[in-house]
């Protein structure tokens, strides 16, 4: 990849870089190769015969996955070339032997200083053309974790003149504890985030870690525990550690839940969700949207079908009364990497046989899984549930257009070509939702 030579760091090592070649024996968390080093067992044993030199000593720009000279194993000498992101601290480079399980520090390089160490690290601004290319040539991406994400970003950017706000509901960068991936992601979406609000939600890859208060006890955040997400992006939460919030934009109200914290009846989050849905003034925001990362509603992804639940355990049971009472129009989820749309549904029953033009009161909520933004795709169950109207295993995103207070257009587009593959409209009169303000919402009988 192209880069001006003044920004290159050249690292020369007169020693075997055994570390990179050694077989993995140490158990550790994470998918990134360096996470397998048993760093807690590291020893310092500096050796006069080992040395690392870093040059130039002053530099500006960024990080890139390093390339190395191929014959270092034979000669004992090697060079690494890479770029570093602007950092506040000086950098030194360390040389270890002993493989992954017995790391032994044998040499430390001279210090490298950054040209502009006081540059703000937040918000992160564009750093120029070469930064973008790191992702495009794949050199900065470990394990090709999100093969569809560049298409999604590119296709959104092409239509940006017609987009007012973007929601990205969890599993944002898949950094899993590796900050360089956040840098890469924030840059990837910079053309979007510099022009329209980019609203995120919390997913398992931002939040989950055992014994840290997350609802799920997995290790999917790689130890980030939501700190990186809440630092990189602003959201109008009352308490940023709890990633739920309400936001109105034009004719929409969005009630964004945090599926990584308990949402069940009696919890703080449940109260928030009810309050968000109950307080909307539908004269001003007639279109009421619920969002959460994990599928708290309906999905026939094979994983959710295996359990026979077709959802995250305890999702619908906890929330469907609220969706119905407050007449939530649409509920969006991610988490499973595919696209699926339900009929307007309540208690697993379709409450409308219509498929593409909904008129009058929405007698149930339409649930949408839009989880094909980037990461490897996931397949569906063989059995197609009655409530599943459209499902597709491809990369894509959804666009909502409120023409006015009574007309909404929904479009699912593929990331690869930006064309519409699924769509529907909703037409209704004011009174269809005005009947449902605050606590005066009349009950709806399913089965229309
Ligand atoms: C990395 O180095 C090898 C050998 O030195 C070279 O063949 C290869 O093209 C380099 N790759 C990149 C991306 O620069
Ligand atoms: C996570 O662990 C806590 C504490 O053991 C437990 O109360 C909770 O039910 C677990 N969460 C899930 C989703 O299993
Ligand atoms: C997905 O699953 C369906 C059956 O549910 C199967 O027919 C199809 O071949 C699968 N597709 C892929 C790409 O695995
Ligand atoms: C709302 O917009 C739709 C679609 O453009 C249009 O057909 C309809 O006449 C509009 N209704 C009102 C009340 O303006
Ligand atoms: C990205 O889009 C191109 C067409 O623009 C397509 O050929 C390619 O397969 C897409 N990549 C993925 C991973 O879907
Ligand atoms: C909701 O039910 C009413 C009464 O049965 C019906 O007129 C209306 O069309 C239904 N709405 C939708 C979107 O199907």
From TrEMBL:
SUPFAM superfamilies: Metallo-dependent phosphatases. Residues 147-339 form the Calcineurin-like phosphoesterase domain. It comes from Eleusine coracana subsp. coracana. This is Purple acid phosphatase. The keyword Signal applies. Keywords: Glycoprotein, Signal. GO terms for molecular function: hydrolase activity. Residues 364-423 form the Purple acid phosphatase C-terminal domain. CDD domains: MPP_PAPs. Residues 62-116 form the Purple acid phosphatase Fn3-like domain. Residues 1-28 form the signal peptide. Pfam families: fn3_PAP, Metallophos, Metallophos_C.
